[in-house]
Amino acid sequence: xxxxxxxxxxxxxxxVAVEINADYPELKTLIANMKETMYNAAxxxxxxxxxxxxxxxxxxxxxxxxxxxxxxxxxxxxLKNFNKVFINARILKEEGTEWVFNEGCxxxxxxxxxxxxxxxxxxxYQDEEFKxxxxxxxxxxxxxxxxxxxxxxxxxxxxxxxxxxKRLIKKKLEHISKGKIRANYRMRFPNxxxxx
Length: 196
Ligand code: NI
Prior knowledge:
- It is built from four helices and nine strands.
- It is an alpha+beta fold.
- The longest helix is centred in the last third of the chain and has 15 residues, at about 165-175.
- Nickel (II) ion binds near residues 105, 106, 107 and 147.
């Protein structure tokens, strides 16, 4: 089932999400629905707060990036297979000189901006069977993870922009929260004015 994606301005996107355990109700169904929702919106990641649930769960399928011919064959291979569910994830270490990448977000349609992040991270998370893994991610794989991870801490990529950039996109963000935007997937807008 495709779920509506929560738009910028909804308080659920600002909460620090809570950890879950294997008793979380209907978790398998939730994950399946989130996958369907992510693919339907052509996203490379989706975090639970974006479908209105403040829990520490997100999905990534970075395989669309594997077509980027500027990447090394090794990086493309990693991205092609970077399709995972992350539960109760933590970033243990972030390293390297910040690099810039043009990010977007399904909750903030039509806004894309350059964001600086560190290139290498060591992470710990649980998979769908609640088995714990520790891994190191680099480059775009790390980038997508950092973006989704921010969502479960109530952070959006637009928070990381310069004061000037923030000012320039303020109106656009207001419009998004009011539903004055066209997205080609289902959304839920926090400040939608109901027609009388
Ligand atoms: Ni996002």
